[in-house]
Here is the input.
Amino acid sequence: MGEAARHETRPGRLGPERGLTACERLLDQYGYEPERVTPTRPRLRNCPFHPLATKAPDLVCGMNHAFLSGYLGGLDVNGVRAVLAPEPGECCVRLGTGEADEDVAAADGTPGGR
Here is the structure.
């Protein structure tokens, strides 16, 4: 899907901000309800797979993580990654540059922040 979007839009080199802007179209289309927290970190306010995730969170969150990681890879977004970071009432995957993850980890003392 990421490769198809890249081929269709031909966006050139995608850094974090432009890459996340391109990615937000898909996120919105598939029900993630993205909202920018910072220029390089969207918050995914909804898990489109929530009913399934409550029954099999490891499976569903792992597939969701793989899907979003693959999309970013196909879109060829530089400097952005998808990480598992479950938050109550939100998607279990966080997209960002990794800097926010390090800030959260430093604040709460856990590897990866959660």
Observations:
- Strands lie at 34-38, 41-44, 81-84, 93-96.
- The radius of gyration is 14 Å.
- The first strand starts at residue 34 and ends at 38.
